[in-house]
Structures are given as structure tokens and as C-alpha cells.
Amino acid sequence: MYKTLVASLLCASVATAAPGFGVRSSQAVTATVPRARAQQLAESELWREAYLRCAPWLTGAESRDPLLLAPPSFSSTAGLVSATASFQCGLGGAPDLGARLASAELVVAGKVIAIKPAGIREPVSEHAAGWKIATIAVGETLKGTARKAVDVYFSPSEDVAWVNRPKLVDGETGVFVIQPGTPGLQVPDRLDVQPLDRRDAIAALSSRP
Predict the structure, then answer these.
(1) Degrees (nearest 5) of the Cα angle 58, 61, 67?
(2) Per-residue pLDDT tens for 54-69?
(3) Region 97-206: CATH code
(4) Computed from CA positions of residues 7, 80, 38, 22, in that sequence, does the dihedral angle turn out positive or negative?
(5) How far is CA 137 from CA 119, 153, 179, 199, in A?
(6) Where are the domains of the chain?
(7) Rounded to an integer, what distance in angstroms lies between the CA atom of residue 194 and that of residue 189?
(8) Mean per-residue pLDDT for 10-15?
């Protein structure tokens, strides 16, 4: 199971003040430090918060650290430094978003504009995929060769063999992490369909060496 979280922390910053701490309440701590140190403190708190929120997904022998999807962003207002970052929680034995991006043939931001039967003959079975083709109008290409549209295979079946795969619908928007496969390009993992508001984090992650 995966969980994606966005953590945001505030840390006070006074450029000329000596380091010091003052407890305001049982839930808030103000750090009066130079700006660079304030950013470091805020980033440390982001990681602590990520571990706390990811705790239910980080149990067992195959647990792993939260995955930072993009470097933290910092902003200042009213003497406070704000640090914000997105993390992915998951299990070490399962693929993470970074791995999905690395294996993808194409990563696009776009919208599903048509769905039709794939016309593939399959053996009669309750486990048949019942392949369909979703046509995605491409607004932006984040990885791969740019094109105006791309056809993606998916299974609408609720059978146990296919139930955890994304079920694309007409009009759906998102960032599609499109994988090579049989019978063709597809999005076989839930991590392969991401909301549009994660475009910047995905672009940053996919550009890493």
C-alpha cells in the first residue's frame, strides 16, 4: 500500500540573532537562528514528520525510508521560514515512483479523450483482461518522444488478477507514467496514474540521473 503526503513546517529566522529556542506551547517550538540554519531545522522537521505519518506503511522486515519526491521548497513570510516537500510512503519490496519513472517509456500530462474495446481475442476465462484502449490527449511530455496523443491499454476487469490496476475513464486528467508491455503501452500499476497537481514533483524526480 502507498500513501503520498505533503508536509509543511515553519521555523523562525532572525538573521542577526544568536541561536536559541523558546517553547511557546506543548505543540510549537520557535527557533531563533540565521536563515540558513532555519532552513536546515525546517527540513529536519519535515523528515521527522514524514516518518511519523508514514509509520503505518514502514513496518515489517521490508520497510524502507520515505521517498522524497522533490527537494524541499522554502519561502519566508513575517520572519518565518516555511519548508514544504512531498514524500511517498511504501514497502521496500514494492516498486516506488522513482522506479516506475525509470522503467517508463513515456511520461505525459494529459487527459483521456476516448475509450474503446481493444478487439483482442482472449481465451474464455473469468480471469480474462477484457482489454480496452484509452486515448490520452497529451498536454506535456515529461519523458519520451513528444506526441499529440497516445493509446494506452488497460483492463477494466474487477477479477483478482486485475482489480488493483488503474481503471481509466473518459475525461480523466493526470500524469500518466506509461510502461512498455503486452499487448502494448499500458499503466499497470496504481503509481502509473498520478494527479496533475503532482506534475512538478514528478518532473523533478524523472529528471534525476
Answers:
(1) 35
(2) 766 665 554 566 777 7
(3) 2.40.50.120
(4) negative
(5) 21, 14, 17, 16
(6) 3-89, 97-206
(7) 11
(8) 40
